[in-house]
């Protein structure tokens, strides 16, 4: 699977540190400029729905339109080495932002110090790989599908950490055990269905993972903590709920008054990659305590079989929330309509219930260039990842997505 090995090498060069390879380098690597990108086209025919692939996108793909923005991304990176044990990289990325515009952003900027063959330290703007391969999710050439599964990677609040990490590799016979710890500040924004942009810059992040690699098998378990820098409570709604006299409304007012900013992520994954077969299974859980933090479980299974230049693949993914939307207990009268609607909307912002089945074909056109055709069928049941008439999607619904993409690296 030549394309796959090339993509892994490129992804490691661009976004991650390959400790095992660095320990073998005998000469200083020259400065290199590399690039990557995806030009994607997406279509669906469901009226009223905007399909987003991640919570940082201001808008989604509308019905009966060919959307070129949801899956399109491009980046370049300059890599350099000062000494055999010190190197670094600067990466620029362009994509649709939370402000609904295209702009160039500093996506990665780090320096790495190889303390020993087993220990590497990295500092600067680094990737947050709380989920397997989350650090390289914008390199479309390195993966099977057109986009990372929204049900798993789409609700990651940030993909960059301004901080530091330590990676230790421990040989275990014919296997390797990678131990990583990291910490720093988040750098990202998310968008609600009403257009509100949540600025997460400055939020604290820390965590780590264990990764066991033996032959074609890779196993990983890890967790991370995301401490939101600040939360703006809906003071007007809280006051209205307290004055209503309803016990349920009082309970909601207490919930909305809580300043619970801590979100914990747990993740585990198993991957197999040998010969023409590659497969991966993943499960994650997000645990938040307040109304503004989600409580979601995510699962994904994906696999592909290389037939030469063509690789068929299939995937199944789901995410489900564990907290229901609570009512105010107020009668549905014109006087209470605004209070009821506002209370429901605020809770709906953190409801993520959807699952999907995906089938696709990848065609390796030439070295560094791949074409993909993909069909996704997605079932929805109260999902804030998808917009419906400027609000989170509610009720039971489903839609079919048709996608084409051109991935490249150079």
What's the gist of this structure?
With 410 residues, the protein is mainly beta.
Q: Which sequence of strands runs across the widest sheet?
A: 1-3-4-5-6-7-8-11-12-13-14-15-16-17-18-19
Number of strands: 19
Fourth CATH level, the homologous superfamily: Porin
Shape annotation: globular
Tally of individual domains: 1
Reading off the top of the CATH hierarchy, the class is best stated as: Mainly Beta
What order do the helices and strands come in, and which of them pair?
Blueprint: H1 2-15, H2 19-24, E1 32-43, E2 49-50, E3 73-83, E4 86-96, E5 102-114, E6 119-127, H3 150-153, E7 160-172, E8 175-186, E9 189-191, E10 197-199, E11 204-214, E12 217-227, H4 235-243, H5 247-257, E13 262-274, E14 277-288, E15 296-305, E16 310-321, H6 337-348, E17 352-366, E18 369-388, E19 392-409
Antiparallel strand pairs: 1-3, 1-19, 2-18, 3-4, 4-5, 5-6, 6-7, 7-8, 8-11, 9-10, 11-12, 12-13, 13-14, 14-15, 15-16, 16-17, 17-18, 18-19
What tags apply to this protein structure?
Porin, 410 residues, mainly beta, 51% strand, 6 helices, two-stranded antiparallel ribbon, 16-stranded antiparallel beta barrel
């Amino acid at each position: 699977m030549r394309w796959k090995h090339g993509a892994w090498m490129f992804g490691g060069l661009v976004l991650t540190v390959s400790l095992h390879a660095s320990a073998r380098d005998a000469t200083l690597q020259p400065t290199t400029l590399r690039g990557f990108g995806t030009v994607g086209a997406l279509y669906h025919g469901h009226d009223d729905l905007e399909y987003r692939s991640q919570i940082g996108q201001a808008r989604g793909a509308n019905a009966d339109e060919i959307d070129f923005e949801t899956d399109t991304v491009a980046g370049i990176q300059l890599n350099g080495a000062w000494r055999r044990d010190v190197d670094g990289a600067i990466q620029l990325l362009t994509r649709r932002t939370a402000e609904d515009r295209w702009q160039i952003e500093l996506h990665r900027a780090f320096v790495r110090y190889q303390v020993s063959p087993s220990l590497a330290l990295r500092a600067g703007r680094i990737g947050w790989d709380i989920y397997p391969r989350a650090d390289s999710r914008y390199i479309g050439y390195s993966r099977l599908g057109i986009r990372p599964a929204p049900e798993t990677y789409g609700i990651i609040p940030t993909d960059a950490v301004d901080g530091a990490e330590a990676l230790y590799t421990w040989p275990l016979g014919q296997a390797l055990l990678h131990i990583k710890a990291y910490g720093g500040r988040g750098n990202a924004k998310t968008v609600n269905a009403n257009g509100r942009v949540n600025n997460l810059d400055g939020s604290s992040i820390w965590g780590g993972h264990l990764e066991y690699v033996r032959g074609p098998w890779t196993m990983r378990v890890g967790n991370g903590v995301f401490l939101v820098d600040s939360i703006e409570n809906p003071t007007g709604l809280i006051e209205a709920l307290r004055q209503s006299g309803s016990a349920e409304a009082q309970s909601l007012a207490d919930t909305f008054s809580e300043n619970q900013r801590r979100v914990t992520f747990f993740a585990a994954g198993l991957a197999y990659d040998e010969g023409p077969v590659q497969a991966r299974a993943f499960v994650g859980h997000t645990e938040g305590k307040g109304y503004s933090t989600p409580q979601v479980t995510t699962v994904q299974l994906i696999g592909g079989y290389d037939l030469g230049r063509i690789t068929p693949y299939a995937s199944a993914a789901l995410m489900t929330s564990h907290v229901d939307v609570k009512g105010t207990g107020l009668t549905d009268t014109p006087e209470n309509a605004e209070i009821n609607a506002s209370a429901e909307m605020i809770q709906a912002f953190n409801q993520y219930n959807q699952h999907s089945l995906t089938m696709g074909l990848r065609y390796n056109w030439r070295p560094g260039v791949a074409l993909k055709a993909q069909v996704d069928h997605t079932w929805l049941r109260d999902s804030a990842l998808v917009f419906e008439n400027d609000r989170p999607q509610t009720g039971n619904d489903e839609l079919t997505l048709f996608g084409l993409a051109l991935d490249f690296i150079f």
